[in-house]
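Protocol step 4 of 5: obtain the predicted structure for the target chain.
Materials: sequence only (see below). No template structures provided, no constraints applied. The aim of this step is simply to have a reference model before the mutagenesis design in step 5. Sequence pasted as it appears in the construct record:
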Amino acid sequence: MLNFVLFGPPGAGKGTQSQKLIDRYQLIHISTGDLFRAHISNQTSLGKQVSALIADGQLVPDEITIAMLEEEVEKNPEAKGFIFDGFPRTVAQAAALDAFLEGKGTSIAAVIALDVDQDELTKRIAERHKQTNRVDDQADKLQKRIDEYFTKTIHVLPYYEEQLKLNKVNGIGDIDTIFAELCQVVDKF
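Step 4 output (structure tokens):
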């Protein structure tokens, strides 16, 4: 089983690049953001909790996120592998993911970090907000999400670097050029 973490701040292009990777490698995409939005739109009790947190620009607690993610993996027992997008966001989540996958006889092959600066992120998300009107893309909530990434989430990278699994890819430029660089990483495995 081939498992990857696609890592980067909000607006780095994780969703765009994940779709291209799924099409090429037949992997299952698990986006915590998509899971949250599905629970919210289905008005599940979990969705209502998540909705309040996201609307305030906060991260969803680890135990809720991990349970949702594990449930999604279990739904796909025949998968060739997974692309985890937006997860893990903390070292505790990374360790929980490692333990869960190890229990299934697999692991994370590599972490691919899309490197994008804050100015580019702000520009991209402003454009996305015009097109989709996502609540979490509003300027005040967006700044909280970007700050959260650069003060907390970024600390997950050394965890994977110590495991020699971290690969950085320039996330600014032509989508297909970025995708080609991502494929160079994935093709090693």
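Step 4 remarks: The radius of gyration is 16 Å. The longest strand covers residues 2-7.
Proceed to step 5.
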